[in-house]
Structure formats: structure tokens, C-alpha cells
Amino acid sequence: MICADVGGTAVKSALISVGRVRLPQSYKIKNFASVPTRSDLGFEGVRENVLKAIEAVSADDIADIVAIATAGEVRWDDGTVVKATSSLPGFCGYAFSKDISKTLGRRVVVVNDACAAAVCEHYFTAKRAHSTFVLTIGTGLGSAMVTEGRLDADHVKDLELGHIPYVDNGYDCRCGSKGCLEQYLSATAIKRDAGKNTVKDALTDTGDQKCIAAKVSFFSALDYALCMIKRDYAPAEILLGGGLAEMKNLWLDEFYAKFGHTDVRAARKGNKAGLLGAAYCALNGVFEDQ
Ligand SMILES: [Zn+2]
Fold this sequence. Notes:
Elements: E1 2-6, E2 10-18, E3 27-36, H1 42-56, E4 65-70, E5 73-75, E6 80-83, H2 96-104, E7 107-112, H3 113-123, E8 131-137, E9 141-147, E10 156-158, H4 187-194, H5 199-204, H6 209-232, E11 237-241, H7 243-246, H8 252-259, E12 265-266, H9 273-284
Parallel strand pairs: 1-4, 4-7, 8-11, 11-12
Antiparallel strand pairs: 1-2, 2-3, 5-6, 8-9, 9-10
Helix pairs in contact: 3-9, 4-6
The chain binds zinc ion.
């Protein structure tokens, strides 16, 4: 089957072969591609790039079903995007699943990207926890929780913690609000505060006061988020995903030393979690209308 992961920077896609739909170990990524999202091109341009990414890994004989993980808030039952930031222009209210399904003439399942990552982390492991919370820290901040049970809207929840208010009258957010948590807990925030072009530079320059302050601000926001997640959702496990988790060597031990939370780990499947999770959702999920 074909899977795509639509983010603000790139649309990743893969051809995934599946031995048995309920057996995560039998999911194998065969072919991988990445196409720039190009949100500057507007809705039609982004939609075109999603189709390009899908086509790049397509093999007509296997691609009977297409699974898409996407940024933005997605209605589980029909794959419509109900909320999206400027990284996916014009996607608010877009019937993503129905439109792509009509264009390709195949069944298309669309889920939120944090939900897909959480589904992957929850199911693609030998020792399954009762509930898995995934916080993805990348360009933006994603959050989703999966609870053991039927793979439906009640057990897979997109929590949109990125847009809860964190600082009164703080930085403008891509969602139109001010002071959202994402503006303090994301790669974008770290680069902005440190005045650096890459997160790596921001986290490794120990002689630069702005970089030190950026790290302190990032750590405080992460501590705030983790305390809130533990208090309000009490998941059996919390995993960190996204670009920041991939460079955990640069900061995670220091965060443990200063704030604790040593029970919180980096996600196991890294940046393939969205693709694998979308595949698992499409084949095992219970949807009313997609
Ligand atoms: Zn926001």
C-alpha cells in the first residue's frame, strides 16, 4: 500500500508491503520519497505536491489503498481537515480523504499526523502499554494519545496541545492566536530565540547567551507540557517524537538532570512513525465514512 505524511516542510511517501494487517512486524517500507510541501504555492500547489509524492512511490499492482497522515486537525470518521495553520493553506474544511480518493479512484484514509505517530508507537512494539502519549516536537508541536481498544475516535485522540495558551500576550501563532505553547516548544521557537538557522547550532553553542536562554525556555516549556500531560491524561507511557527527539543526544540528558521526567523516552520509530501509523490505521481503523 501507499502511505504519505504531509508536513509543513515536506510530503514524505512510502510504499509499504504488509504481510498480515494485524501484525505490525510484517509492515515493511519498500520505497521512500520526499517532495517539498511548498505552502507558498497555496492550496492547489500543496495538493499537487501530495499527489506527486504518492505517484513517486506508486506501483499500480499493489496500491489499492492509500493512507495519509497530515498536519492539522482531522475528523477521524471522514478524513476532513477541520483546522489547519498557514503551513497547509486553504486546508481548513477540506474533504481531504474524499477528494484524493476521487482523484486516484482508490480508497484513501486520512488521519492526523500525531495520531498516526501515536498509533505506530503504541502498536509497533513488543510490550504494549495500556495507553501511549506522543508529543512530537518539530516545526510545530503535535500531541496525541492512544488507548488500548478499538482503533476509533474514542481511542485515538488528537489533543492539539500546541495551541493551548502558554504565555499571556506572547508570540503570534500560525493558528491566529497569541502565546500558544507551540511558539515556545518547537524547533521554530528554539531557532528564533537563539537567533540561529539550525536547532543543532542553537543547542550546541554553549558560549552564546541567546542560545543558553533559548535552551532554558525550551526546557521550561517541555517541563510544563509533561507535568500537564501527567496530571490531565495520566498515560501509561509518554514518548517524544519529531525532529527534536531525533537529536536527543544534544539535550535530553541535560533535561533529565535539571527537570527529571526520566520516565519520558524518545519515540522508538523516529520519523517513519507517521507513515507506518497511517498504514496501520487505514488497515485496522474503524471509520464511519472513509
Ligand atoms: Zn496556536
